[in-house]
């Protein structure tokens, strides 16, 4: 099981000083957070990332000098290992699906509480993503609308075992490996093995891709 043994640096990109200061206070209370870097502008963040790349970036979608999608595109093109979590007042499906397609690791509303933020951070650091029911629903709805269907190269000729189907459906509800293990009376390692097999069989890059696949194949419904 992965652990949070190494200290991490978190960066914040938000033009509201009071919001950044509140986040800094919360983040500095976490034992694995070594430092918190605040940036009010995109150039300021870029300068820091080129000096030292933080492990995680908390990104606001609405900035005066650059919008969230463009910021994510530029950052992930230059720093593909940067883990981005969006924090936004916008909760419409189009924003969630756009950012997930760009490669962000999670998407949280700005009214999330301290525990939700902590869980998202730890999931992203430990597993590479934090997957919520809201993200799942947004992706499913996007796939089910023909005029706004998400482009995908996922294989349509895939044979999944009954157990893999069970794991896939639980992933689509936003459950984490430990929760799926409890639900199916399996070890976490076994669940992670099934998830890896699902990624290999479907060609999905991550759990968001698995939801897209499941929706396209009619394996789940909202």
TrEMBL record:
<keyword id="KW-0238">DNA-binding</keyword>
<feature type="modified residue" description="4-aspartylphosphate">
    <location>
        <position position="60"/>
    </location>
</feature>
<keyword id="KW-0805">Transcription regulation</keyword>
<dbReference type="InterPro" id="IPR000792">
    <property type="entry name" value="Tscrpt_reg_LuxR_C"/>
</dbReference>
<dbReference type="InterPro" id="IPR016032">
    <property type="entry name" value="Sig_transdc_resp-reg_C-effctor"/>
</dbReference>
<dbReference type="Pfam" id="PF00072">
    <property type="entry name" value="Response_reg"/>
</dbReference>
<dbReference type="InterPro" id="IPR001789">
    <property type="entry name" value="Sig_transdc_resp-reg_receiver"/>
</dbReference>
<dbReference type="InterPro" id="IPR039420">
    <property type="entry name" value="WalR-like"/>
</dbReference>
<keyword id="KW-0597">Phosphoprotein</keyword>
<feature type="domain" description="HTH luxR-type">
    <location>
        <begin position="153"/>
        <end position="218"/>
    </location>
</feature>
<dbReference type="InterPro" id="IPR058245">
    <property type="entry name" value="NreC/VraR/RcsB-like_REC"/>
</dbReference>
<feature type="domain" description="Response regulatory">
    <location>
        <begin position="9"/>
        <end position="125"/>
    </location>
</feature>
<protein>
    <submittedName>
        <fullName>Response regulator transcription factor</fullName>
    </submittedName>
</protein>
<dbReference type="InterPro" id="IPR011006">
    <property type="entry name" value="CheY-like_superfamily"/>
</dbReference>
<keyword id="KW-0804">Transcription</keyword>
<dbReference type="Pfam" id="PF00196">
    <property type="entry name" value="GerE"/>
</dbReference>
């Amino acid at each position: 099981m992965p652990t949070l043994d190494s200290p991490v640096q978190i960066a914040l990109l938000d033009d509201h000083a009071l919001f950044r200061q509140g986040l800094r206070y919360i983040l500095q209370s976490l034992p694995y957070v070594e430092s918190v870097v605040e940036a009010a502008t995109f150039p300021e963040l870029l300068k820091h990332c080129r000096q030292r790349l933080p492990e995680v970036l908390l990104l606001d979608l609405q900035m005066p000098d650059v919008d969230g999608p463009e910021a994510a595109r530029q950052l992930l093109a230059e720093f593909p290992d940067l883990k981005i979590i969006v924090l936004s007042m916008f909760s419409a499906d189009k924003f969630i699906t756009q950012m997930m397609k760009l490669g962000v690791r999670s998407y949280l509303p700005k009214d999330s509480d301290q525990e939700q933020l902590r869980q998202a951070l730890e999931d992203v650091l430990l597993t590479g993503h934090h997957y919520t029911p809201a993200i799942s629903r947004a992706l499913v709805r996007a796939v089910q609308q023909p005029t706004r269907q998400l482009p995908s190269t996922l294989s349509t000729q895939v044979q999944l075992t009954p157990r893999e189907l069970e794991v896939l459906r639980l992933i689509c509800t936003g459950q984490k490996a430990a929760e799926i293990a409890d639900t199916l009376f399996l070890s976490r390692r076994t669940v992670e093995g099934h998830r890896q097999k699902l990624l290999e069989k479907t060609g999905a890059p991550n759990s968001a891709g698995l939801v897209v696949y499941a929706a396209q194949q009619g394996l789940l419904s909202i």
